[in-house]
Specification:
The chain has 7 helices and 10 strands. It is of the alpha+beta class.
């Protein structure tokens, strides 16, 4: 136990599921923040919530996952990550931490957030004879970079929300069975990434022209459409200034990677099962 107050910044992961109603704390519904706070309170890292100044750097919607999310707390107790992880379900876990000044804000001191969006192609419609124009998607990604009003790429909320954002990076990488989108910005509007992905895929599948996509940056007209599936979205990392140096806890990192491996094995087995069920000639 240490006598003076200290603030720590933690890195943690979580896998979005139907069980959790997003990351932001709610009174009557289970969320990622609620689970974290309960674990910290049980292990006496948090006694008084207000005094602890518990702050999560970024909020995500239901079914969205994270690998490098961050939160900060003030505590009198030296962090032992596996002690905290012992109170967490395997789909949530801390894996690194660092000491920061008492006035540090995990939310406002972030230089930018990095999200990835993974789109599986194997079972998508354009595998049945349709093609996707990756070069056109890459061209559109570059057009979305920079300072724009992303009102038509966000969930419609109150009129007081400022919708101008600076997109530092928008890119796509093509793999045999999937696409990986990368987006970096200091902050994003709600559903902004999922809506950008939805329209970029429409563009690549020739359901939308390049000019029509650019027209979405013209906010004089509101255009309504469905965002991409939240399951593909990952909060990959939150970047702070270079002097923020994390101490990675090996046991906690192994816990995270072991969980990812076990879940991957389950998915691979299920995928093989349905593949075999489709073929009558399998002996």
């Amino acid at each position: 136990m240490i006598s003076e107050k200290r603030k720590y910044l933690f890195k943690f992961y979580y896998i979005g599921s139907k069980e959790y109603y997003g990351s932001q704390r709610q009174l009557n519904s289970p969320t990622i923040e609620n689970i974290l706070m309960n674990a910290l309170q049980k292990k006496e890292y948090i006694i008084d919530l207000k005094e602890a100044n518990f702050e999560v750097a970024s909020r995500t919607d239901k079914l969205v996952s994270a690998r490098g999310a961050s939160f900060s707390i003030i505590t009198k107790k030296e962090p032992i990550l596996m002690e905290i992880n012992s109170e967490l379900p395997h789909e949530i876990g801390l894996w690194a931490y660092t000491k920061v000044p008492l006035d540090f804000s995990s939310r406002f001191n972030a230089l930018y957030r990095h999200y990835k969006y993974i789109l599986a192609l194997k079972y998508d419609p354009f595998k049945n004879g349709l093609s996707i124009n990756i070069d056109l998607i890459k061209k559109a990604c570059k057009a979305l970079e920079g300072n724009h009003d992303f009102k038509n790429f966000a969930k419609r909320e109150s009129n007081n929300i400022k919708t101008i954002r600076t997109l530092k990076l928008a890119s796509v990488d093509s793999k045999p069975d999937y696409l990986i989108f990368d987006f970096k910005s200091k902050s994003f509007l709600r559903q902004q990434i999922r809506r950008m992905v939805a329209k970029l895929i429409d563009l690549g599948m020739e359901k939308l022209s390049y000019e029509e996509l650019l027209y979405l940056l013209n906010t004089s007209t509101f255009i309504s459409y469905q965002p991409a599936n939240p399951i593909g979205l990952i909060l990959w990392d939150i970047i702070y200034e270079n002097k923020i140096k994390y101490q990675i806890d090996i046991k906690s990192m192994n816990r995270m990677m072991s969980f990812f491996y076990r879940e991957e094995e389950k998915v691979n087995l299920k995928r093989l099962l349905f593949h075999i069920l489709q073929h009558n000639n399998v002996s």
